[in-house]
Every structure is written in C-alpha cells, then in structure tokens.
Amino acid sequence: MTDDQLLRYSRHILLDELGIEGQERILAAHALVIGAGGLGSPVALYLASAGVGHITLVDHDTVDTTNLQRQIAHTLERVGQRKVNSAQAAIQAINPDVRVTAIAERADAALLDSLVAQADVVLDCCDNFATRQAVNQACMRHGKPLVSGAAIRMDGQVSVFDPRQADSPCYACVFPPEPAPEETRCATMGVFAPLVGIVGTVQAAEALKLITQAGSSLAGRLLMLDARHMDWSEVRLQRHADCPVCSGLRA
Fold it and tell me: Are 145 and 116 in contact, with CB atoms under 8 Å apart?
C-alpha cells in the first residue's frame, strides 16, 4: 500500500480482524453489485469508501425524483441519468481510486453468467424475484458467495448464500423458484427510507467480511428486521437436498 492508502484506511488497519493484510484483500477485490437503487446505493458507497478495488454496477434504470427519498447515491441534478452512471459519480467523489464498471443493462442470465465468473463476491440489491433467482443460479454455477438483501414497507431481510460451504443453502433452497410469489414493489407498497440504508449497510459489511475472511458470515442464517419496532430476528436456514438449483451442483 502507498502512504496515502495507509493513512486513508488506517481505521481498518487498526482492527485486529483486518489489519494490513485484510485491507490489501479489500483493495484487490472485485465486487459485483446487482441494482443501483435503494440497497445498491449504500452498498456501493460503503464498498467504495472501504477501498474495494473494482466495483461492477448493473442496473438498466434511470434516476427518478421518487428515488431520492431513499437512494442516497443519486442527486436531484442527476435525475434522468442512468443509475449506474449516477452511482459511479458518487463513488468517484468518495474514492477516485476505485475502478467502476457501469453496465446499464438488465441483469439477464447471459450477462450474469459472464459477470459473476469475474467477481469475488456478488451483492443482490435488485427488486424483483426473477432476477434474484437468476443471480443465485449464476453464483451457484460459478461457486461465488452471494449477499442477498431485500426491503419493502418497514420490513427488511439479509442473508449470505455461500456455495463454498457444503452445508450452506442457496437462495432457491429458502425461496423456491416455483411458484413465483406475487411481486411487491416500492411504487405500490412504499418503503421506509432508512430501512434500505440499514439493510444495504449490513450487506456491505457481510461482503467485506467475506473478502477479508473476518468473523463469521450470515451463511445459513436469515436476518430479518421489523423497523416499526426496530426488532431483529434470526432464522436458521437448511440446505435442501432436492433443491432445483444447487442439488445438482454440490455433492
């Protein structure tokens, strides 16, 4: 690390769980973030501030005035811009040393198959069930850890699905692809502004822990938040032997 990096990341380096070695792993890491909205905003900003060397952002949408209530990577001046480009500008304002790849496309199976293979950790910050399943399938296929978050109304959840651990379930073990649930969207259901920040920040923390191998991850656990009462609860998750996604990929 350079002298400037030693100063910038000194508060990480002081941590016994990270130190110089952990920070060097962060600087060398490549994180793939699917979605640059409510969850993707805090995820991208915290990964960038922590020094993740390469962040790939995928989102086909543009910034809308209604996004500004919660999507903190975007500004009024950038309404109408692609979200990935707006988030890239926010990242570079915080940490210009981070390499950002902005992809303004829908995260379909073909694109995910290419991008997931190149990443060290994948963060699902999207807002629809089909994309979540596609992200999970790509992560299972390429053996990449997935940090999944969701938030709607005043309820949030986050977990880690890590195919490198034999007993870790995948997203489809917990939320089977069929039958697909009825979609719930912020545009019709609403969402509490700080909730996406809380969930997204936990996602960023889990990703950094996976990169640095610090502590233990949320693999095998689903963390749920009821923000009405600021009540956290945890559910233990089990891998399903007949899972349609991961049963054929892991012995």
Answer: no
Q: Which segments of the chain does DSSP mark as H helices, in order? A: 3-8, 10-13, 19-28, 40-50, 83-94, 109-118, 129-142, 171-174, 186-189, 193-212
Arithmetic mean of pLDDT over the chain = 95
Instruction: Give the count of domains, the chain.
Output: 1
What positions carry a catalytic annotation? 186
d(CA 112, CA 32): 10
Q: Which two tokens stand for residue 86?
A: 């707006």
Q: Quick one: tokens of 241?
A: 């032997």
* pLDDT tens digits for range 31-65: 999 999 999 999 999 999 999 999 999 999 999 99
Domain at 140, CATH number: 3.40.50.720
Average pLDDT over residues 240-249: 87
97 domain-assigned: yes
The tens digit of pLDDT for each residue in 72-86 reads 999 999 999 999 999
What contacts 2, CB < 8 A, 6 or more positions away? none
Are 63 and 73 within 8 A, CB to CB? no
- Asked if residue 157 lies in contact with residue 223, where contact means CB atoms within 8 angstroms, the answer is yes
Give domain status of residue 241, yes or no. Answer: no
Domain that holds residue 198: 3-236
Mean pLDDT of 123-149: 96
